[in-house]
Write a structure and sequence with these properties.
Structural class: mainly alpha
Number of strands: 0
Largest sheet: none
Helix content: over 70%
C-alpha cells in the first residue's frame, strides 16, 4: 500500500508541476517503464512458484542474474525505438528503460520472500522499494529535472532498493534455506536447477496484461492533442489505483495457487475478493471525483466526471491480473493468447475510431471487460477440475 500511495503521489505532483503540456510525455514514459517491468513481474511469480516447489535461493538467484543480463541487452536496443515512437529525446527514453535490469533483481528477491511465505519481510521490501523509487523522482521534479531527470532519479532508487532487498531476503531466509533443494533435490541426489524458459513463458503472460493496461497511454499521444492527452493521462491515475489497490490479494494467495491441493480454492477466493474490491474502488472514484481539480489543477476538470469509468477499467484489469496469475501458478500460460487478441482489437479500434477522451476510455473498458470475462470463465472452469493432471495442450 505504501508503494502504491507513493506512486500515485508522484503522478499527481507531476501533473501539477509539469502542466497539461508536459505531463503527457512523463505519463507515456511511465507507461513504457511499466512495460519494461514485465520481466520483473514474471520473475517474481516464477521465483515464488519455484521456491514453493523446492528450489533453493542459490538456484533462483543464478537464474535472476541471467535474466537481468538479457533484459539489459534488450533495453539498449529499444532506446531509439521508444524515442522515435513517443517523439521524446534519447536521454528520456533511456531513463524509462534504464531501471529494467534492476527491477528484475528486485522482483526476484521479492519472489524468494513470497514463495517462502515471509510476508512481513516482503511488505517491508515493497514499501522500501516504492519509497526509494518515488522520493528521488519527486526531488528531481522539484528541482526542475523534468521527466527524464525524474525517471533517472527513480532508476537510481530502484538500484539501491534491489541491493537492500537482497540483504533482507538473505537474512530472512538464511535459517530456512537448504543447501540442496528439499525433498525433490535430495531424492534425485542433485540440487534442482531453474531455467530461463519458465520465466519467458510467464513474461508473455505479464506482457499481455501490462500492454493491455498501458497501451491507451501510448495511443493517446497519437490520436489526441497534447492538452487532452494530458487530461486522459491524469484520468488513468484512477485506473492505476483500482488496478494496484488489491495487489496484496494476489501476493498472499499466489503460493496457494501454486500448490495443487489448494489451487482451485485459492483461485476462486482471489477472483471473488478482487471483484468486491473493484466495486468499492469504482464507487470511491465516483464520490471523490469533485476533488480531482483541487489536487491536479483546474485544467483537469473536464475528466472528473469520467473518473469512475477510469476506475472501472482498472478494476476489470485487476480481476484479469488475478486470473492470469493463476494461469502462471499452474503453468497454463497459453491463456495469454486471449489477452493478446484483446490488445490487438483495442489498438485497432482506438486508432480507427477514438478521437475523444470519452471514446478512448469507453473502448478500453469494453475490450477489457470482454477479455476478462473470457479468461475468468476458462480459469474457473479449469479450477473445478484442478485435481486432474494439467492439459498438455494448455500448459
Amino acid at each position: 500500500m505504501t508503494a502504491n500511495v507513493a506512486g500515485y503521489l508522484l503522478q499527481l505532483l507531476a501533473a501539477s508541476w509539469l502542466g497539461v503540456e508536459g505531463y503527457s510525455e512523463f505519463a507515456s514514459l511511465l507507461a513504457v517503464q511499466l512495460l519494461c517491468a514485465v520481466p520483473a513481474l514474471a520473475m517474481q511469480n516464477v521465483v515464488a512458484r519455484e521456491v514453493v516447489r523446492g528450489a533453493s535461493s542459490r538456484a533462483v538467484r543464478a537464474m535472476m542474474w541471467r535474466c537481468a543480463a538479457m533484459v539489459a541487452a534488450v533495453a539498449v536496443v529499444l532506446i531509439p525505438v521508444v524515442a522515435v515512437v513517443l517523439d521524446v529525446g534519447v536521454w528520456a527514453a533511456a531513463a524509462a528503460l534504464g531501471a529494467a535490469p534492476a527491477l528484475v533483481i528486485l522482483s526476484g528477491e521479492q519472489g524468494i520472500l513470497q514463495g517462502g511465505n515471509h510476508f512481513r519481510a516482503l511488505a517491508t521490501v515493497l514499501a522500501m522499494a516504492g519509497t526509494a523509487r518515488v522520493v528521488p523522482a519527486l526531488l528531481a521534479l522539484a528541482l526542475g529535472g523534468g521527466a527524464a531527470g525524474a525517471l533517472w532519479a527513480g532508476a537510481a532508487g530502484i538500484v539501491g532498493a534491489a541491493i537492500v532487498a537482497g540483504r533482507i531476503a538473505r537474512s530472512t531466509t538464511a535459517s530456512a534455506d537448504l543447501p540442496a533443494d528439499t525433498d525433490a533435490g535430495r531424492e534425485s541426489g542433485s540440487p534442482k536447477t531453474v531455467g530461463v524458459v519458465p520465466v519467458l513463458r510467464a513474461v508473455q503472460v505479464q506482457a499481455a496484461l501490462m500492454a493491455l493496461s498501458s497501451v491507451d497511454l501510448i495511443v493517446v499521444r497519437v490520436v489526441l492533442d497534447e492538452v487532452d492527452a494530458s487530461r486522459y493521462s491524469l484520468g488513468t491515475i484512477a485506473t492505476k489505483i483500482a488496478f494496484w489497490l488489491p495487489q496484496a490479494v494476489g501476493v498472499v494467495l499466489y503460493p496457494r495457487m501454486a500448490q495443487p491441493t489448494h489451487s482451485a480454492r485459492a483461485i476462486r477466493d482471489a477472483l471473488s475478493v478482487l471483484s468486491l474490491i473493484g466495486v468499492v474502488a469504482v464507487l470511491g472514484a465516483a464520490l471523490a471525483a469533485p476533488l480531482a481539480p483541487l489536487f491536479a489543477g483546474a485544467d483537469y476538470a473536464p475528466v472528473q466526471g469520467l473518473l469512475w469509468l477510469f476506475a472501472l477499467h482498472g478494476a476489470i484489469l485487476a480481476v484479469l491480473q488475478g486470473a492470469l496469475l493463476s494461469a502462471i501458478a499452474v503453468e497454463r500460460t497459453a491463456l495469454a493468447a486471449v489477452t493478446w487478441i484483446g490488445l490487438a482489437v483495442e489498438v485497432t479500434l482506438m486508432l480507427a475510431f477514438a478521437r475523444t477522451i470519452e471514446s478512448l476510455i469507453g473502448t478500453a473498458v469494453s475490450v477489457a471487460a470482454v477479455t476478462t470475462a473470457i479468461v475468468a470463465a476458462v480459469v474457473l472452469r479449469a479450477a473445478r477440475t484442478q485435481k486432474a493432471p494439467a492439459d498438455p495442450v494448455l500448459s
